Amino acid sequence: MGQFFVLGTMTGRGIGRRAATLAFGRFPGIWQVTQVPENLPAVAFWRNTIAGFTGGLFEERVLPDPQEEDDLRNVMTFASPA
Prior knowledge:
The chain is of the alpha+beta class.
């Protein structure tokens, strides 16, 4: 999956969390979700959603963006069980 977003008029209803957890459950394996660190609402959304899905078992790091030399990405990595 390359992009994930919920239209502004639909935010706050749990739609994004539900869609993300359905995708995580449907496609087991190692997941990596990235955000721009300055996008604090996105970081908070993914941190809470992934923590809820994994029971808090995920790794979060800030790493250089492989496509944009001077940019950073917040990276969350976790396993979705089979």
